[in-house]
Amino acid sequence: MAGKILNRRDLEFQLFEVLDTEALTSRPRYAEHSKETFLAVLDTAEAMAEEKFAPHNRKADEHEPSFDGTRVSMIPEVKEALKAFCDAGFIAAAHDFERGGMQLPVVMTQAAFSLFKGANVGTAAYPFLTIANANVIHRFGSEAQKAKYLDALLTGRFFGTMALTEPQAGSSLSDITTSAEPNPDGSYSLRGNKIFISAGDHELSENIVHLVLARIPGGPAGVKGISLFIVPKFRVNDDGSLGARNDVTLTGLIHKMGYRGTTSTMLAFGEQGGCIGELVGEAHKGLAYMFHMMNEARIGVGMGAVMLGYRGYLASLEYARERPQGRAPTNKNPADPQLPIIEHADVRRMLLAQKAYVEAGYALCLFCARLVDETRSGADDAARQDAGLLLDLLTPIAKSWPSQWCLEANSLAIQIHGGYGYTREYPVEQFYRDNRLNPIHEGTHGIQALDLLGRKAIMDGGAAMKLFAREARQTIAEAGKDPALAGHAAELGDALGEIAATLQALAPVLATNPTLALANAVLFLEAFGHTVIAWIWLRQALAAQRGLQRAIAADADFYRGKLAACRWFYRWELPKVRQWHELLRSLDDTTLAMAPESF
Ligand SMILES: Cc1cc2nc3c(=O)[nH]c(=O)nc-3n(C[C@H](O)[C@H](O)[C@H](O)COP(=O)(O)OP(=O)(O)OC[C@H]3O[C@@H](n4cnc5c(N)ncnc54)[C@H](O)[C@@H]3O)c2cc1C
Fold this sequence. Notes:
The protein is α+β, with helices and mostly antiparallel strands. It has helices at 8-18, 35-53, 57-62, 76-87, 106-119, 121-140, 143-155, 286-292, 294-322, 345-377, 381-416, 428-435, 445-456, 459-480, 486-512, 514-518, 521-550, 553-573, 576-585, 590-593, and strands at residues 66-67, 72-73, 158-163, 179-182, 188-198, 207-215, 226-232, 234-236, 242-245, 248-253, 264-269, 276-279.
């Protein structure tokens, strides 16, 4: 295996010292769990990730799935790993005991799943898509649909997909054209083409359950006329047995830069007029159903980006400790031995940057997963609603910030390896290629920015932003009492002030000239993202200060490392937001003013 997946000490720090995950066990839903059962889940996940997922990460990249016109083939290790994952019950981990699940909090499932993502994103994608698919059917499917599909998905007999994108409709789902004609028996006949559908065909499971967005003819135009359908590869009889092949055809595999272990497919629905689907919930509400489940899916994307960054960070850390090269600036004596490159300040800069990006990205994704738990089992209605509001606001950041900065971490990991990092003999180039997907799928970086500035930051009179500011100010007040952190606390306070000033300046323009107000939305996404991460770092620093008081030896080094990474982020990164806010408030129209013909 090429290096460690993550720092387990960090994982337990996040769960038990920052997020107080153990407190969840006092809630009725998690009463049968304890810190010990949580740790046992992590142990199982870690062992399985290391033994079954990580060893074929490179092989799956080098031998991508192939299609001979009839069958999809891939290396056998993928199926073996997924069998182990399903047999261990991980697909149903968050579901009720009665459904065969482990009834784990989402923060624990995200923590456990992070290990599989770090080990092998390509193989891990199959069960994670299945989990997302099962969650939609669990939440919105009829009892009959649950009986037919849900148990089979939760045990891994069937795998699932999300089939939204069409060749002419990616970011703009209002333009999808796949149609669904009602049949007299209540089913629908689908016809249309989808592209980029991950895990859209393979022979890893008995059946594949596609969740397909399509239009019922005569429905409203745009997003209000999109419905959601269950379309299985093999039709399923009422007793759960498999029926005839449905008319879903793989028209080709897509060959990608990374994530090669996951099949990316072009699918034709109803070419022969025989593609039967079942409507989920009510007609025309398909997009709302899909988006309802997006929060968790997007935290999952962010976590995937974090884990690839984390792998690269640990690989480059190990390399930097071992690679001798050069001497101190003050030493010109060639007879002296060379220093390991970790001794050079610039290499430490690149390591600190990676540490600051990946550990904060990890903390943010787990924080958001914990918010999902609060929405489900929080103390009262007000607590659950607040958690939902904050989660809505932070989800674009949990998806976009790691996709951008943990990818940057992967670039730095290559840089630390020098020329070797650019070769296929070392793992870091694959981490970069795999991670490059994350700013693109599940809503591109630009689309996330429009959603944040155009909707989430200003909805209900800015209620979510005010809630975030309130939470951050509590952390600021606490950190302000610690002389070691008071400076950072004040800087975070300033960054919050910048956000408020920018939103105040942009609010009237959003109403009168949204094209201008939204032109630089990406800057807002990034400025808010950096502020959220600064807050996340201050929370970690507070926990590290508490830990330091009782820590000894190696543990003290761990906590000092946390404080150093926090300091790095406040010195090197947070000050950048001031310039971004100035540009935003100036309503800079350079991009809008550049005519397409002038390029
Ligand atoms: C490996 C991979 C796996 C995928 N898996 C799935 C899957 O399982 N299921 C599924 O349904 N889809 C999947 N997708 C599709 C993915 O969600 C889309 O590629 C993505 O939403 C972008 O759509 P597009 O490719 O059509 O790009 P476009 O929408 O054409 O975007 C191109 C560029 O234009 C920008 N842009 C577009 N519209 C606007 C706008 N209004 N304002 C500003 N900028 C804009 C975008 O930000 C982007 O930079 C996958 C894609 C890939 C590459």
